């Protein structure tokens, strides 16, 4: 009898196809709150820092804010962004 996994994985989107650089995809720069939001911290070469917010229900509407933060996470129920700085 085939053993079923307790978790089902489903690929919803490719961040690189949405314009997110590979250097910004990792545990130190990306957070997920439930299955609703993905927050990515992008660091530019000229200190042009962005927080990118992707709603997985509507991934074509990417929200980019020019914010410098150490961490960023979205509230899963309300459109509230929590930031942590130094």
From TrEMBL:
Taxonomic superkingdom: Eukaryota
Organism per entry: Cavenderia fasciculata
One family name in Pfam for this protein: Clathrin_propel
PANTHER family cross-referenced by the UniProt entry: CLATHRIN HEAVY CHAIN, CLATHRIN HEAVY CHAIN RELATED
Gene3D superfamilies membership: Clathrin heavy-chain terminal domain (2.130.10.110)
Residues forming coiled coils: none
GO BP annotations listed: intracellular protein transport; receptor-mediated endocytosis
Family matches, as InterPro entries: Clathrin_H-chain_N, Clathrin_H-chain_propeller_rpt
Name listed for the protein in its UniProt record: Clathrin heavy chain
Listed GO MF terms: clathrin light chain binding; structural molecule activity
GO cellular component, one term: clathrin coat of trans-Golgi network vesicle
